[in-house]
Amino acid sequence: MQDRVLVVGIDGVRLDVLRRLSTPHLDALAADGFLTPVEVDADTPTMSGPCWATIVTGVTVAKHAVWSNNFTGHRLDVFPDFTTRLAEKDDRPTFVAAGWQPLMQARGGGPLFRAPARSVYIAPAEDTPEAWEECDERITAEAVRVLAGENMAATFVYLGAPDETAHFLGCGEEYEASIRQADTRLGRLLTAVRSRPSYADERWTFLVVTDHGHADAGGHGGRTPEERTAWLAAVGPGIGAAPPVVRHIDVAVQALVSAGRHPDRHWSLDGRPFAARPHAVLLDMDGTLVDTESLWLRTVREIAPDVDMDHVLGRSVTDTAAHLHTRTGADPRELAADLEAHFLAAVRQEATALPGALDLLDLLQESGIPAALVSASSRPVVDAVLDILGAHRFRTTVAEGETPRTKPASDPYRAAARALGVDPAACLAVEDSPAGVAAAEAAGCRVLAVPSYTAIDPAPRRTVVPDLKGIGRRELWAAGL
To answer: How much is the pLDDT for 333?
Structure first.
């Protein structure tokens, strides 16, 4: 499956006006995904240049330094647009179609889109609403041709007529008619994508966004709610209800991940995606996929009945034996051997898959997402559990002793990601213990925590759920963001 994204930017569409109009194509996207307000942040002027720069770069004005419709002094060489990043970093085919000069030409400090793989610039014949409608029509026709017949990983299409109409005529009937016409053009773009012979073998994300609103009489640049309230419509794999807050800086990052590109941490982007297909899922074993934590605790408590769970949950036999040595004085090697033998026997006789575990593993296989088993248990215990879960469900497995350090160190998770050939930051780790969560987060993974015996609090890049039951694509794509 190929990941592809279409971003349509419709300039200057007030959300309150949009909501009272019939826009069937936007409405259909919202029904399948969401349409939500986006507030222009307090530091950004409500002008097209700064807002579009924030939308397509994923960083704030403090970084891209586009403060007006004159782009002179920008830092777009350091913080380029998402189509340029994909083209330059990954040699991915990208396409931009627009008619507003600062987006496309080197005048007034431009262009905003520095180096997409391909682009088309069609300027309006004059600066009037009628000329801009004709310009948008020609832009749409060219974009339809490219979308229907060529293999672009990411496409940005700009429609400017609604903004120009509001400038000339205010936010009245003509403005509403221009918004409806933009929706019709959006429908043609969507139809072009869905007509592709390869569409069934592609994962498409559609993002439709505006930069700012307008005052009633037309114009913008002020700080009224009508000017500062923008919006985003989104639909695609894993996209469900809108997050509590969506920002302009999130759009470019979402476009990147929807095109299959996990952002490099060195890019210093400010936005975050609201749905990102994990490049791999790295799963803890004991207490996460199989009901073995109770067996482990029982084994340990046979030696030290009052042991603190925090010192044994998610820990290796070696680490646990070292801790028990401080409490009992027994030889740690003998303790480790005794723990291993009793625990392995209990696993072979009593271990079962936890609710939702096999369904999650099957979902990963159906979705083409590689899975790895990452455990602090020994190889014999891991192999015994693989007989229960099915070894075929995992591309690789990591057991205690197979990395220089085990959990809570990051080594096991980094080793699993390396074996799969993926960036740990693009992986989702599924864990049940604080030690395991610490290991996964130290490796840079997103985390889905399913606490077993010890509470785990939500945190940035960490989602906490009570169990694995009912985990579907939307929950998986949103976890840890």
So the answer is: 76
